[in-house]
Amino acid sequence: MPFRGTGGLGDTEAMPIEAYAAHQPKSQLEPFRYDPGPLGPREVEVRVTHCGICHSDLAMIDNDWQISAYPLVPGHEVVGTVTAAGPEITHLKVGQRVGVGWQCGSCGECEFCESGQPALCAQQRATIVQHHGGWGSAVRTTGDFAIPIPDAIPSEFAGPLMCGGTTVFTPMMHYAVKPTARAAVVGIGGLGHMALQFLKAWGCDVTAISSTHSKEAEARKLGASDFLATKDEGALAGAANRFDFIISTVSADVDWNAYVNMLRPGGMLCIVGVPASDLRIGAMGLILFERQVAGGRTGSPQDIARMLDFAARHKVRPMIEKFPMADVNRAVAHLRSEKARYRVVLEA
Amino acid sequence: MPFRGTGGLGDTEAMPIEAYAAHQPKSQLEPFRYDPGPLGPREVEVRVTHCGICHSDLAMIDNDWQISAYPLVPGHEVVGTVTAAGPEITHLKVGQRVGVGWQCGSCGECEFCESGQPALCAQQRATIVQHHGGWGSAVRTTGDFAIPIPDAIPSEFAGPLMCGGTTVFTPMMHYAVKPTARAAVVGIGGLGHMALQFLKAWGCDVTAISSTHSKEAEARKLGASDFLATKDEGALAGAANRFDFIISTVSADVDWNAYVNMLRPGGMLCIVGVPASDLRIGAMGLILFERQVAGGRTGSPQDIARMLDFAARHKVRPMIEKFPMADVNRAVAHLRSEKARYRVVLEA
Questions:
Q1: Cβ of A278: how many Cβ atoms within 10 Å?
Q2: Which numeric CATH code is attached to A166-295?
Q3: What is d(CA A296, CA B268) in angstroms, rounded to the nearest whole number?
Q4: CA distance B313 to A26
Q5: Which of A225, A285, A333, B279 is deepest in the core (most CB within 10 A)?
């Protein structure tokens, strides 16, 4: 460590980062070295030990949302060790284990930043949008968005919690799901298998909803007390008015009215998956029973810290399949094949 | 009064009711006499002095919702005087002025009834669904749904509050709109012109949204501090992220994403009008800023009583056009013409 900034800790001299980048939409990842430049006074650099692969990484590689900039280094479920901290960083130490999720910066001055909700900041910066993510030797982030990871959570499991975990957990906090609720999880995959565990630990009765019964046994082990297969004739109609909270993790265009109709009076359908088309929802189904459809998203740092604490206490862990970082293309192909059970993690 | 039931008050001998009924979808109203049968022990009979005409009456006449039973006596914005009360009625007196709205009964035993929210009861009975409404000399209702009207509200103004008023006011209570909110009202008509007044009295900053500027001056008088005309190029896009609460009273199929995009983070679009088609809403617009789309509906008796008290204190009154009850067909045609400013009331 040749230099320590005033009030901060660690090496602020830039070293090149060895990463994997997509150079155009839908392309393979290729080795890519970049110079991250001087470390900002409020930034940290994190040496990556693990990084999850999220469906959002695939969407960004493919430019599905028309916001990708190339070369694009994916990776926003980062776990690693702080190796350098800018001079204004006082709450993190070099050598400390942290996670970095979808967000890596915010304006710091708007009403949302100032009220502890920088996830709602209009000027927020995302880890893989015009910024290089965690599929590499290191990643940079504003220090506020490097979240210490509780000792009880092994690094290989922490990555998927940093995005997938907070995506399903934050709505439970922000929309005040009650432990007395009957809840349902639509889509038993990377997000859904964590939602089952979180809702079970939250005290809810949890129903898993999937297209077929192939994941039923596993869903029940993860906390589901009931299972509905959408391909079973009448399964959804038979569950009318049953749930207080339904969280949908699917990216398919489904019959949304069938899900709205499964809500009890005052119930909420929370959307965290991003279907290609607009949701189509009948007004009357909402009106008659004061039902709500809401968007759920990754949390602010305080939300993520609470989620990690809750996950540690309740032993909520993603089920993962590990690949060496160098096998990133094989790992991506595996996730694209929809055969992953359930979350893919790259290991340095 | 030849008979008084034990514990109740008033005449329980049935007298025929002289009403106006539609005998088939989209038909004219015709004089219709019916025998309401013996008064139930928890029922009251209300002699009608005034009854509003609501768009829901037109939808029921036309069988738009496929739930109409003929002959159908519309009218669910009823104001009148209790003339008879069943023996179990103790909270109302013969001669008392009351209003009757959309709902006239509920099971009384489910969790929603027992927790004071019979508006969410699955077995609820509506005043004009397989039950004869207020376009006549009298109407019957379960006593719980006959709501005393504060002295400060003249009868001719009370009717439209009983359905239109509670439709826009109940969501403000149930979804906990804050007086610090910036609010918008979409559609300045029978519902919208009351929503402007209620939100203004609630402490909100209120923007009126209408297709053209034709109602701007009136909307500003009713409480709007700003006005957006949807036909003005870029008007809605220019109001991105502006509102905490938008209440939509329109029954047209509009560009819902334009309204979602006008919501601030954590904001809610509340639907109280019933468009013919499904709402089409992009998931990403909900997800990015934790926005919500919710259905709003008429309240339970306690909600209606609070709304009436609030309306009385703040002098919230519908703007009405009165017709004699005998001119019911002319009154209906006037409302259908969309020229009414804003609420049509029949007077006995």
A1: 18
A2: 3.40.50.720
A3: 13
A4: 63
A5: B279
Rounded Cα–Cα distance for residues B234 and B258 (Å): 10
Of B65, B273, B293, the CB nearest to A292: B293
The bridge status of strand A205-210 relative to strand A29-34 is unpaired
CATH number of B17-153+317-347, picked from 3.40.50.300, 3.90.180.10, 3.40.50.620, 3.55.40.20? 3.90.180.10
Entry field: residues in chain B? 348
In this complex, the residue of A265, A274, A283 whose CB is nearest that of residue B271 is: A283
CB A73 within 8 A of CB A20: yes
- Token digits of residue A138: 């290191």
Phi, psi of A190 (to 5 degrees): -55, -45
Q: Map tokens 């599905």 to a residue.
A: A64
Contacts of A286 in chain B (CB under 8 A): 271, 293-295
Are B294 and A293 in contact (CB < 8 Å)? yes
- DSSP secondary structure string, B223-265? T-SEEEETTSTTTTGGGTT-EEEEEE---S---HHHHHTTEEE
In this prediction the ipTM stands at: 0.93
State pTM to two decimals. Answer: 0.94
How many whole angstroms separate alpha carbon B122 and alpha carbon B110? Answer: 8
**Residue A130 structure tokens:** 């015009």
Count how many pairs of residues, chain A against chain B, have C-beta atoms within 8 Å: 111
What share of residues in chain B are helix, strand, coil (percent, to 5)? Answer: 30, 30, 45
Q: How far is A214 from chain B (nearest CA, A)?
A: 27
CB atoms within 10 A of CB B33: 11
Q: What is the pLDDT of residues A223-239, one digit of tens each?
A: 999 999 999 999 999 99
Neighbours of B151 (CB within 10 A): 8
Q: Could you tell me the CA-to-CA distances from A166 to A146, A307, B177 in Å, in that order? A: 14, 7, 27
Which amino acid appears at position B25 of this protein?
P
Amino acid identity, residue B237? A
Which of A65, A281, A290 lies at the smallest CB-CB distance from B297?
Answer: A290
Q: Which helix (H) or strand (E) holds B22?
A: strand B17-22
pLDDT digits (tens, 9 = 90+) for B154-187: 999 999 999 999 999 999 999 999 999 999 999 9
- Taking phi first (over 0 means left), then psi (-120 to 50 degrees means alpha), and beta for anything else, what does residue B108 get? left
Collect all residues of chain B within an 8 Å Cβ-Cβ radius of residue A120: 265-266, 289-290
Q: Taking CB atoms and an 8 Å cutoff, what residues of chain B touch A288?
A: 295, 297
Question: Domain spans of chain A?
Answer: 17-153+317-347, 166-295
